[in-house]
Amino acid sequence: MVYGRKVASGEWRDYAIDLNRDKAIFSVFRRASEVPLYRIEKDPRLARKQGAYSVVAAGGVILKRGHDLARVLGVFDKRLEIVSS
Questions:
Q1: Which of 56, 13, 3, 18 is nearest to 33 (CA)?
Q2: What are the φ/ψ torsions at residue 2 (nearest 5 degrees)?
């Protein structure tokens, strides 16, 4: 659902799935020739500690981590801000 919204808005255009022995990674790209904008990772070794799921930005900064994938993907939801004039 998140991927579909971002593709429809033109923010994301390509993806890659990497399956390693220790984790699974879903990477999203603006263009196929660039580095990934975000990586959504599942690392079962962290399930009891910080949560198996994490969203990592292009620079390696972990934006959100947790036990529930839906809540972790909430980092992509746009929030409305009140701006006073």
A1: 13
A2: -65, -45
Interval 14-70: pLDDT, tens: 888 999 999 999 999 887 777 888 999 999 888 888 889 999 998 889 999 999 988
Each residue of 1-16: pLDDT tens digit? Answer: 777 777 777 778 888 8
Domain count, the chain: 1
Sign of the four-CA dihedral 10, 75, 59, 53: negative
Would you say residue 22 lies in a domain?
yes
Per the structure, the complete domain to which residue 36 belongs is given by 2-76
The closest alpha carbon to 52, from 40, 38, 61, belongs to 40
Extract the runs of DSSP E, i.e. beta strands, from 1-85: 14-19, 24-29, 38-42, 53-57, 62-66
